[in-house]
Amino acid sequence: MQGKAVEELTEDEARAELARLAGAIAAANRDYHTRDAPEISDADYDGLKQRNAAIEARFPGLKRADSPSEQVGAALAEGFARVRHAVRMLSLENAFAPEDVADFDDRVRKYLGLGPEAPLLFTAEPKIDGLSLNLRYVAGRLVQAATRGDGEEGENVTENARTIADIPQHLTDGPEVLEVRGEVYMSHADFAALNARQIAAGEKPFANPRNAAAGSLRQLDATITRARPLRFFAYAWGELSAPLADTQMGAIERFAALGFPTNPLTRLCDGPEALMAIYREIEAKRATLGYDIDGVVYKVNDLALQQRLGFRSTTPRWAIAHKFPAELAWTRLEAIDIQVGRTGALSPVARLLPVTVGGVVVSNATLHNEDYIAGRDAKGNPIRGGKDIRVGDWVQVYRAGDVIPKVADVDVSRRSPDAQPYVFPHVCPECGSAAIREEGDSVRRCTGGLVCPAQAVERLKHFVSRAAFDIDGLGAKQVEAFFADTVLPIREPADIFTLAERDAANSLQKLKNRDGWGDRSATNLFAAIEARRVIPLNRLIFALGIRHVGEAAAGLLATHYGNWAAFERAMTAATVGEGPEWEDLLAIDGVGAVLATSAITAFHQAAERASIDRLVAHLTVEEVAPRGPVESPVAGKTVVFTGTLERMTRAEAKARAEALGAKVAGSVSAKTDLVVAGPGAGSKAKAAAALGVEVIDEDAWLHLIGDA
């Protein structure tokens, strides 16, 4: 029902969906406003609100008493005194497209009885991504500060607000009673410095500046807030004993005169086209502002017209927030770095002017490969209209879910005339070995192998990863430290299993006496290493980091060969492209020529083979438990399926055959006992005929296995 179109919902389905949405939106509000730890992105939240509004519009009689469309913010956090706002703090209606902006202008004009040609000014200002705050001044003195809360009541954070340098404690002018409203935020530079301090102190870093600002303002201990670099922009007001001005822009200018920071990008605009122009201008500057914004807010400038327009239940009719796409942002590409992976792949990484995308601060993004940078795909066809990417360019960055940020587009109109095309390196930046690109491969690779320190480090990280040896206490950071160490180095996997012995022999440099280590952590590490001296065959094969041999492929190889001795013997004896060992390897269902070549090559390179032998000397490798005897007509036989099966899927046929004790292979060889051929069978059926292997159709196969 969640994915069902609103127009297709029945009344009962709509009622249930409104209940689900009410719960989901309430939880999101608590996470964002009360806990300062949002679990979903702004885009997902906006989607929930839009779906709720659409269902309520179609079924107005089903609108719930606790409808999210009637609520602002969330319940207050415990520990703060409550403050009832003299004037409600409302949220804003959202716009997501140019049509929404035009519709907003049209609705305002119709409500006021203004024709399309009548002048109507709006202010446009950046929408700061922070925490709303209401500051109450009486006789020029700050007497109270409160968060928005649920719009009716907020949290009393007066002592914390007094620690923010941007907020005046006393005013020399202004109305007797003045409530100034604005946004508490944290700059990108201050956020980075705060997170560095958090990490150095062993504390969890903040996800983004908004969370950091909100969490800092809502500390029960004001001394913590004082140590956090919070800032403030003023843009609205609550209770007033006397008007500030006749216009929105005039009121903003009055705030500035009173000593409040106001946003210098605030502009006056006449009509939707002018609003869209300032929207694009602010969006283009987004990455260089030094603080987070998530849209542009438009407000009717004339305060008398604002008064006439009034309010809906939770939003003013005279204002709207035009949101930026949550998963997209433009920023400047400051450098292109090349990282070398465990298989030698040279991967280009974009170093970006930090920008918040989808609630996460992004400073790096993948550029895929050299073709992508050049503006073409692997076949030489143009992408992005053939536009290449250069250092200094303005690029569009996107995130989808939790994937690695990527560069999607480049704005060549903002390119410096001095920008030079990027020249992808043909030598490894880590070891100086040649970096070659094989025919048909989209990636350029270092040929240095284990001589390359980057490959060696990444292989070690892979070796200790969760699906491989999973050694507790030996993660990526520890691997890097040990690799660089000159006293107790770990340069290859075998070194891990001699670490305790070398530590014991080195009485002057005990691991437990070194920076970052203690008696307990060192003892625990040695115990964890000792526990991994016994390892299942599939984990060992995966841990070797052989190119193309992932977790699933390692399982296939382990199941086929059963024990290390058989696997090692077969790989040593095998020749790529020929011989019984090659055919036996290809006969494993799921193993192709590329994977088989990688596995054999790993055992035929002298340095890599020596490293493997040194490792295995320290291990006891557990065999894969043999399958119990199965009584069936195909038990022990090697079967190949080819062509189209009409009465079951290929996956079902494979699972059934293996359950009956058969071995399902992906190719036909002299060891194949039976080929099951459906319509469209081609080369495999011909190979079977040439080798004299029995070929049957699907019906004969089903008859053969019967009810076995």
Would you write up a description of this structure?
The chain is 36% helix and 19% strand. With 708 residues, the protein is an alpha+beta fold. The chain has six domains: 6-71, Orthogonal Bundle (Helix Hairpins), CATH 1.10.287; 94-323, DNA ligase/mRNA capping enzyme (D-amino Acid Aminotransferase, Chain A, domain 1, 2-Layer Sandwich), CATH 3.30.470.30; 328-436, OB fold (Dihydrolipoamide Acetyltransferase, E2P) (Beta Barrel), CATH 2.40.50; 448-532, 5' to 3' exonuclease, C-terminal subdomain (DNA polymerase, domain 1, Orthogonal Bundle), CATH 1.10.150; 536-622, 5' to 3' exonuclease, C-terminal subdomain (DNA polymerase, domain 1); 638-705, 3-Layer(aba) Sandwich (Rossmann fold), CATH 3.40.50. The strands form seven sheets. A five-stranded mixed sheet has the order 2-11-10-3-9. Strands 14-13-12-15-16 form a five-stranded antiparallel sheet. Strands 5-4-7-8 form a four-stranded antiparallel sheet. The chain is globular, with a radius of gyration of 33 Å. Mean pLDDT is 86; it is low at 73-78.
